[in-house]
Amino acid sequence: MSTVAIIVAAGSGNRAGGKVPKQWRTIAGKLVVDWSIDAFKNHDLVDFVIVVLPPNKTLDRNDVITCTGGNSRSISVYNGLIAAKNLSPNKVLIHDVARPAVSEDIITDIILAINEETGAAPGLPISDAIWKVSDGKIEKTLNRNFIFRAQTPQGFPYSKILNAHENESDQSAFDDVELAKKFGLKVIFKIGHRDNMKITTPEDFSKISKILTEKLDKNNKERFRLNDRH
What are the helix (H) ranges across 30-150? Predict the structure, then answer.
């Protein structure tokens, strides 16, 4: 029995701009994909990390399992789940590679909330007013108290989310929470963090660079403090 993290890195990331997809760009001294991998590799409750890659792409590290993605996110996640079968996992986390600043606390919260019948996912409340717009006209303001911004990792009992993917026919779900709910799985909401942002546009690189640089500085200061004590 184990907990496996699947990092979905097979997308093209066109909206982020640049000559190469966002997961292969360097931020604060490391590739985006390596930041995301290390967040899970360094977590005590995660046993294995699987990275879903584009076709013909390799990863220059031997501490993770890799597999090839498909032409949709859903297929890529499914391929990652199949790659996890031999590991006999009881829990699985599914994470977007473009969220490289995910914290240890978020990962812990999600893992601890998963059981045989329950998944969990982080999100953030909406601070702005939310409108329903049709044909360029504002129809009404929606109640934002019941609307949250989804984040990852989204965690599930392995066998249940695998079954959902195996029985999904139209691949229309926006994410794995929607798919899990479609097949009757309860999903617990956990508060995420604003630093767990997704790189989507070119402007996001400067924001995430600042977050990761501060995180790196904090970790370095902590290591120096511990070394001084010894």
Answer: 32-41, 73-83, 104-113
The predicted pLDDT at position 178 comes to: 95
Interatomic CA distance for residues 221 and 214, integer angstroms: 11
Q: Are 186 and 118 in contact (CB under 8 A)?
A: yes
CATH architecture of 2-119+149-229: Alpha-Beta Complex (3.90)
Report the length, in residues, of the chain.
Answer: 230
Instruction: Determine the Cα–Cα distance for residues 136 and 133; give it in Å rounded to an integer.
Output: 6
Query: What is the overall mean pLDDT for the chain?
Result: 92
pLDDT at 223: 65
Q: Return the domain boundaries, the chain.
A: 2-119+149-229
pTM of the model: 0.92
Say how far apart CA 183 and CA 85 lie, in whole Å: 20
Q: Which two tokens stand for residue 178?
A: 């929607």
Pairing between strand 148-150 and 118-125?
antiparallel
